[in-house]
Here is the input.
Amino acid sequence: MTSLHHRRHFLRFLAGSPFLARAFAQDSDPGSNLGQNAGKPTTPHDVLDVREFETLAHEALPPAHWGYLASGVDDDYTLEANIGAFKHIGLRPKRLSGVAKADTSVELFGTRYASPIYLSAVGAQRMFHPDGELATARAAKIKQAVQMLSTVTSIPVEGVAGALGAAPWFQLYMPAEWPETEALVRRVEAAGCTVLAWTVDILPGRNIETATRLARTDTRSCPACHTNQKMPMTQGRSNPPEANWTYVDKLKKMTRMKVILKGLDTREDARLAVEHGADGIVVSNHGGRSTETLRPTIECLSEVMDGVRGRIPVFVDGGFRRGSDVYKALALGAKAVGIGRPYIYGLSAFGQAGVERVLDIMNIELALTMRQCGAASIASIDRASVTLAAR
Ligand SMILES: Cc1cc2nc3c(=O)[nH]c(=O)nc-3n(C[C@H](O)[C@H](O)[C@H](O)COP(=O)(O)O)c2cc1C
Here is the structure.
């Protein structure tokens, strides 16, 4: 067990302490409901932070599904690096700033949302809860959050759009054959999607070793559920092996949707994305699920901002577990921040209500940090309010 794991267990122990919960409640936003009902959580409202949902999800899921959710690739270093990196970024608070209320709302591609925190693509969500992507959509609707729907969704885009009350952003895994890509893109466009996020970080394949090991400990018969199971949006092989930047041009020509590239981490790729007409970039390493020993995404953000030079919006995901993490990304220039595992932990533990609670907790923490740093709105978050510590 690594020292990071030891620390997590210690923190979870502390999080369960009624004494600590009371102390936190006194310091928290008077309008918030954090800090109430401390002890073993039996409802979403008992949960104090998103890492507590992780423990509950672990208890709720069979080993193979837990392994698929929680693991990264190889030795899981990128996964842990994403989460650990935030402690190397310090905040510079602004005292007596007079900010009594923080407005977390943002406009993304012409639509206003309550928060810059969005629900990133996670495939096959019925693996985690019987209501799957529908529960996520209902939570996103209530919380006015962006939902990015995976190509490997367990529920068709049309059904999810119905539950969300608007079409979700659609995450594309490109089918191996171009005519299938065209058919898929036309279908999601017809469903009303306005944003297409092409994920480019696992095209060469990956080694999901921890997930495989955990699946071997599962005593259930996997083929009993998985045989003959078809995903509703895609049937065939994924990822054209020859895919390159001309595919971005082809996608742009084919659709009116905003085309954003999910999974870029460097200045050079950011420049190429702009040159090829991408409408946005998601700085992402698939939550540590693509390539081992990558730099944490929060540390790639400034470099990508530099490559983009304000021409298109930059989003980021990977390892965000606190509102203060989100604040740091916004201060470094991100337009919005995606979460993956946190809301799936909430979904696994409590369905729709769990997803809602995860969004509430992170949004309350974000608003609190904004007030601490003197930001009344997302636009007024100051780059000078964060500082990178020497490692
Ligand atoms: C179980 C799981 C499934 C995922 N499925 C997809 C997917 O289908 N498409 C995709 O682009 N990203 C997928 N991702 C990556 C997320 O969109 C996101 O980049 C990542 O989870 C962010 O890191 P975080 O989990 O630390 O928040 C998945 C992540 C997880 C944990």
